[in-house]
Structures are given as C-alpha cells and as structure tokens.
Write a structure and sequence with these properties.
This protein has 162 residues and is α/β, with parallel strands linked by helices. It has helices at 2-16, 21-25, 39-49, 68-81, 91-95, 113-120, 154-160, and strands at 33-34, 53-58, 61-67, 104-107, 132-136, 145-150. The protein contains 7 helices and 6 strands. The strands form 2 sheets. A 3-stranded mixed sheet has the order 1-2-3.
Length: 162
C-alpha cells in the first residue's frame, strides 16, 4: 500500500513540477554552423564532435537543421554531377538536400522534459517526429541556441521522469 501511495505522490509531483529539459541534459556549447560557411567547416564539426545534426544560422537567425543524411545526399549528387566534391560549397546549398522530416522545433529555456518527449515522438503511426529540439532563451528563431535535444538523449530524458 505504501508503495502505491509513493507512486501516486511521484506522479503528482511530476505533473505539478516537471523537470526542465535544459537542466536534465546540461550541455556543453551547442555546435552550430553559419549558412555561408563552407561545407568543409560543417564536416569538421561533425567529425571532431561526433554529431549528426547541426543547427544552421544566417545573420543570427535559425535557418534549418543540417543532418548527416542531408550531407550524404549532397555528397552523392556531387560525385555523380560534378565528378568530385566541392568542399567550398556553402552550407546553405547542402541544407537544400534535407528531407522534410529532418526538421527542428525551437523551444524556450523553460521547456519541460515532457514537452520535449512529446515533440520527439511520432504524432501518429508512420509520422516522423522532429529530428531535434533546439532550446533558446524564449524559443525564437533569432536567438542563439542554449541546447539541442536529439534521439540520443531520450534515455536520459525518460530516466528523469521515472
């Protein structure tokens, strides 16, 4: 009986005061890339930091999410259309190869773990969730990222609500 009461109290506390995603994930600096940077710069970040998603900004405004999948599609086009790689191509050009589901949602710094989990989960069978949740001060496109949440973070997010 005591265990049931404790579970109910824990659920109540979770609903009243859910954990904040940014506090649960405690990140280092968010790696991002400028839309006008050369793709070689983005590739260096991917390699150095072992990341698969990079937020792209232009004049301080969020433009999209550069993924390793988009880079692979761009690379395939480069090798067939141009007989080689154009390492000086701008990131904005490579970003055009992102698929519609390779997207990010921007949220404010007080976004809860529950909300992030909802965003990273498919909304219906066969639907694609967002690839990343980018957390900024108040969730505006013109703000610099404070954190980025991706599928790799799901175990830590779930652990924070258990």
């Amino acid at each position: 009986m005591d265990e049931v009461v404790l579970d109910i109290e824990r659920m109540r506390d979770l609903l009243i005061s859910p954990p904040i995603a940014l506090q649960v994930l405690k990140r280092d600096q968010v790696r991002k890339v400028d839309a006008r940077s050369q793709i070689a710069d983005a590739l260096a970040l991917v390699k150095e930091h072992d990341i698969s998603q990079l937020p792209v900004y232009d004049d301080g405004s969020f433009q999209g999410l550069l993924t390793t999948n988009a880079i692979a599609r761009w690379l395939a086009t480069q090798s067939t259309d141009h007989a080689g790689l154009a390492e000086t191509a701008p990131v904005s050009e490579v970003l055009k190869f992102a698929e519609p589901h390779e997207s990010a949602r921007l949220c404010g710094r007080h976004t809860t773990v529950l909300h992030v989990l909802d965003l990273l989960a498919p909304s219906s069978p066969g639907a694609h969730p967002v690839t990343a949740v980018i957390i900024s001060h108040s969730g505006k496109f013109t703000e610099q990222p404070l954190g980025i949440v991706v599928a790799q973070d799901l175990p830590r997010l779930y652990a924070s609500i258990r």
